[in-house]
Amino acid sequence: MQKISIEACLEMMVGLSDKPVNPPFIILDKDRKILTDIAKKVYRGTALTDRQYATVKRVLRTNYSTQFKNRDIDIHASSNILRKPLRQIDRSSYIKIGNYKEFVYDPFSYYAYQPNHKVLVIRFPFNVTYSKLMGEVRKCFPFYRTHKQKDKNKYSLPYNERLAHKVVDKFKGKITDIDPTLLEIHEKCEYFYNNKQEFLPGIYDFKIKNCLPKTSEHYVNKFGQPSPSNLFLFKDRSEYLGLKYFSGLHLEHSLADQDEFTKRLVKRKASVVVVEKKKWELKQVIKTMFDLKRIPLLVVLPVFPKKDPAESLEASHKIFKNYVDNKDISVLFRLENMESGIKFNEYVRENGLNNKLANNTKIVYINNKKIPKPLLRFNWEPEGVLCLDTTRNYSKVNSFEEEFDLVVQYATEEHSPWNPYFVMENI
User: Fold this and answer.
1) If you classify domain 262-426 with CATH, what class do you get?
2) Does residue 102 register a pLDDT over 60?
3) pTM for this model (two decimals)
4) CB–CB of 104/149 below 8 Å?
């Protein structure tokens, strides 16, 4: 009987041999896919791996020895003959901290120009379960990307404690070779997550904890010590104060007497909020700004591109004058005395809104094109910003707005997709 290589036997079975086999081999459905896939690789010149070799040897000897015998081939002897030496596979699995240039090949990456930049390196041979776990890690941090690798079984992520904890948490007990530093980080993070009250800045039982006194001193003086009646005011300033924890039950009790819009604004997740005009009236928005003690308030009127701010000024001023005197309102710009500009300038003059900026000014109007010099020179800081349009502002106006923890954009029908803020929230 003939003795040929196991690769030749495999190619013969699936019809890849140089000479046609008649009659063709009858291959079981359960074996067809794996035998065909491996046969195509060896036909292209790729050597078998040890696991591929063991699988093919077992399947051919067990299920097809009779068919090979009928074709004068000794499959038991042939299965011990290799055309090429077995291909060595790196099956190492590990999680470690490495240098970016050592582990990542991505010449156009920002990190490629930082020689000392560290990355979190995860390596494992192809494994469906492990691949799903990596997918779960990436979903938790959508702004992070895995970087291009020379080794397709290797992944790298930015090195920080949150990612390190998440990765170790997913793979601990599955990958044994984990950098001790990462295990230590995971242990510390676990203690932190299980004992947040010891570390996380927040209000616990109406007491500010884990926060520098100077950070909250201004608002404690303004609102008083946290209590059921004012807790929602501290929640509204939570981004500015760095407060991450509030009792859900206590907060709900504090918000019980507030209207729906105020509740939603207090519970916002972003500093920039787009308020839809069709859902909420301007008077409701302004009322909430006063309820949240967001006074003094900066109001941005649209003049760019080719906008008429007169209507927005008049509509908002009619509401503001129910809360503050005209002497406490200052419009810090004028328009050219032509067409709609005349109407705007006359409204400012007739209503006494041409007041100079002062420490006690409560409402300040500017436009979305330019920051008035008095606003930059004078020691006046608003508690919030109200933009009466969603049209893209000039960059300097945007930069100025970004300094504040609450920017409300009152959306119009001409909502612009060119909003410069990366994170926004619609309510």
Assistant:
1) alpha beta
2) no
3) 0.67
4) yes
